[in-house]
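User: Show me a protein chain along with its predicted structure.
Assistant: Here is one chain, sequence first, then structure tokens.
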Amino acid sequence: MNFSKAVGAAKQVVDKIDPQHPLTPQKHKGPPPSDIHIIWITGGLSCDGDSVSITAAMQPSIEELVMGAIPGLPKVHLHNPVLCYEVGEELMTYWYMAERGELDPFVLVVEGSIPNENIKTEGYFAAQGTNHETGQPITTCEWIDRLAPKALAVVACGTCAAYGGIHAMQGNPTGAMGLADYLGRTFLSKGGYPIVNVPGCPVQPDNMTETLLYLLYMAAGKATVIPLDLQLRPTWLFGKTVHEGCDRGAYYEQADFAHEYGSPKCLVKLGCWGPVVNCNVTKRGWMAGIGGCPNVGGICIGCTMPGFPDKFMPFMDEPPGGSVSTSLVKPYGNMIRWLRHFTNKTMNREPKWHHRGNRLTSGYHPTTYGPPDGGSRPMAGTQR
């Protein structure tokens, strides 16, 4: 769905929302800001893969967002340790300014899962910058505590920030969690918005920049509430499953399954979770409409889901429900495949009246150049 359609969908959602509900976001109040800052924390438990991923975004690109190429937006200032040229204390200056309220409004983006700093007696799990008074690192949790309540909107970029991801799997030593687990699902930003989760491992580039674009238009007063599902994901991006957009879906319907990698057929028996995973990568691709796990022969391992990775392992095994669903669809699919093969064979034959010769057999009876049987019936407009 393109952005204009997404805005239309959001307006339809707004009509059904109770304005008195505590989780009902409101349209940005006050005059549109001339400038808006994006404070992007990469100090969570992560690999910085989400920041790297968005360099591939094209709809819109990160360059279009920050260079004023999109009409109607305030000037955007991006502060991301991976992408901006400032480093060290010069970079951290913007964090301190945001804390003091000198960058109002700003959007807070968190990348990486949030460790539980309360489960130990010394040290820290994740930090960014230094406390000038104590000389000690400022933990990621401290930055979230300081900045989230002052942010116009708060965005969790990638599955680690959204739901904990790899670092939060069973047996982890850090007590890692997602941003909504840390702040609470009822958290509202200064702008009155819930946390916005844009999951993916890493995040699909255009999904992230399009979400930022939506929020920027909200800040400019040109868009209303962003529609989110129960897991706080933008609905127009995560409202459908991988399977619903997959080119291999027809093979599933026909009970035609791949049994080895490299096959163009449905991958569910090889471990693909696409039928139950909310993700648009099969429709959107990865970059310029190209790529995306099942599109290039890889199984879906559910990386946009709150249960990832624990509930989807072992990744290469057939999903528990896969054997049941494939068994049920087999009789129907085999019959449909045979019928379609028969019809396809019939439709691949040209009509019998396509031929050379001196007789017209298409069923048309000419009136201007003699009867079809070659008899002596006069042509139209002549007399005997």
